[in-house]
């Protein structure tokens, strides 16, 4: 039978093995790709749209991302360089560490509640960069020594000055050459001359029964650099000063002291006040209070351009124990203190009076000194008030060389807060 020309069965399938599609309109079956191939219009055969450059804002974003990446890498490199420099500045004293380990059994126990006691030693060593202040005899003495107590809650700090001429019992200590010094009663700063920081620490611990957790030694040059790094410290002088030995000539009135003048101010002794070491310590306390206040101000801590020279000066001038001999250790210490209000940063001198056998030396006033040491040892509060006020007399704190404790004063009852002559960082030299 002859097929009708219109019959679909008469049509041959296109080559290529295309699968049939569903019937289109009118019932006619369509084959995939057939019309398109005939017309040469398959998608693979059609040219794509012309490529256009990315919009300008995209190019800007790419450039900004690249610049940011470079800045981050550069900052990371700079930050690492700064960290390495500051961290490498700090010196550790391994000889002191060995000394303390050797006599560990004689030392008081550490505080159990997190309080910390740090011994700050101002060295009058004439070596290194300090030769201009005298001949280097190969020995050094502790020109200034302060026991800094940080309360466990870090809400207060109490700095207790120990007179250099205070007569104390120095234990047997090991010199740098390996020889031993015998136990003896001498003036306090001889301990540093005998056997360095280790002997000084053990002398303080024997006197106070307070464990020294850390120590920091700073010399003349380091002190000057620190003061310059904070752009000077303000003082107010009631009268002009001229002290040739301290290389100091200053007019009366309010003024800002920088490195050399600041060092002369805290070292001057014979031409200021009664010439006693006690008054010099009071002047040092006022100056340190003003320095603390300046460092805590936003102008220093929140300004990287001013903070870096302070950190560089501080780390370059310090010798510490191993626990503080790193930037991380110093940072943790500063971080724990930066929240203490300046009104709660206290300065006082250990209760003392003229030594009974030599008016040019000092001795502790008891039981006042033991009362102070006991409060700090137990992390209980003490208070300070200006010299000569009724509040200061409550603690029966002794006066300076040639003076005695206030007559008729008494030690406060247990549980009360004893008050000693002193000052705070809130009220500096000009208040």
Structure overview:
A hairpin with a 4-residue loop joins strand 13 and strand 14. Helix content is 35%, strand content 21%. It has 12 helices and 21 strands. Helix 3 crosses helix 4. With 431 residues, it is α+β, with helices and mostly antiparallel strands. The strands form 7 sheets. The protein has a 9-stranded mixed sheet with strand order 3-16-11-4-5-6-17-21-20, with helices on both faces. A two-stranded antiparallel sheet has the order 1-2. It has a two-stranded antiparallel ribbon with strand order 7-10.
Attribute tags:
431 residues; alpha+beta; 9-stranded mixed β-sheet; two-stranded antiparallel sheet; disordered N terminus
Condensed summary:
With 431 residues, the protein is an alpha+beta fold. Helix content is 35%, strand content 21%. The strands form 7 sheets. Strands 3-16-11-4-5-6-17-21-20 form a 9-stranded mixed beta sheet, with helices on both faces. A two-stranded antiparallel sheet has the order 1-2.
């Amino acid at each position: 039978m002859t097929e009708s020309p219109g019959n679909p069965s008469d049509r041959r399938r296109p080559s290529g093995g295309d699968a049939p599609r569903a019937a289109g309109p009118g019932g006619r079956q369509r084959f995939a790709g057939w019309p398109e191939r005939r017309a040469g219009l398959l998608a693979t055969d059609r040219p794509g749209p012309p490529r256009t450059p990315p919009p300008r804002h995209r190019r800007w974003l790419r450039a900004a991302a690249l610049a940011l990446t470079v800045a981050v890498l550069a900052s990371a490199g700079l930050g690492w360089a700064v960290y390495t420099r500051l961290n490498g500045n700090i010196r550790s004293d391994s000889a002191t560490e060995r000394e303390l380990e050797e006599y560990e059994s004689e030392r008081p126990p550490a505080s159990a509640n997190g309080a910390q006691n740090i011994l700050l030693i101002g060295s009058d060593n004439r070596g290194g960069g300090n030769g201009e202040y005298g001949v280097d005899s190969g020995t050094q003495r502790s020109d200034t020594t302060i026991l800094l107590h940080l309360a466990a809650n870090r809400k207060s700090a109490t700095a207790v000055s120990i007179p250099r001429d205070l007569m104390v019992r120095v234990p047997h200590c090991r010199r740098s050459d390996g020889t031993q010094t015998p136990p003896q009663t001498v003036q306090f700063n001889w301990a540093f001359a005998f056997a360095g920081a280790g002997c000084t620490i053990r002398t303080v611990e024997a006197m106070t029964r307070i464990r020294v957790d850390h120590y920091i030694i700073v010399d003349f040059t380091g002190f000057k650099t620190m003061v310059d790094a904070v752009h000077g410290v303000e003082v107010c002088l009631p009268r002009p000063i001229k002290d040739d030995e301290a290389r100091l000539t200053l007019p009366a009135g309010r003024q800002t002291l920088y490195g050399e003048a600041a060092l002369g101010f805290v070292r001057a002794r014979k031409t200021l006040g009664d010439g006693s070491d006690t008054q010099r310590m009071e002047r040092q306390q006022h100056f340190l209070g003003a320095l603390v206040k300046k460092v805590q101000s936003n102008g220093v801590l929140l300004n990287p351009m001013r903070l870096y020279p302070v950190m560089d000066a501080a780390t370059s001038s310090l010798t510490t124990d191993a626990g503080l001999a790193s930037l991380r250790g110093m940072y943790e210490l500063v971080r724990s203190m930066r929240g203490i209000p300046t009104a709660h940063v206290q300065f006082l001198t250990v209760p003392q009076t003229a030594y009974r056998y030599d008016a040019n030396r000092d001795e502790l006033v008891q039981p006042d000194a033991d009362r102070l040491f006991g409060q700090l040892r137990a992390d209980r509060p003490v208070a300070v008030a200006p010299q000569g006020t009724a509040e200061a007399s409550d603690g029966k704190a002794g006066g300076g060389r040639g003076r005695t404790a206030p007559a008729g004063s008494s030690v406060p009852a247990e549980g009360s807060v004893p008050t000693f002559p002193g000052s705070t960082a809130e009220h500096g030299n000009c208040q």
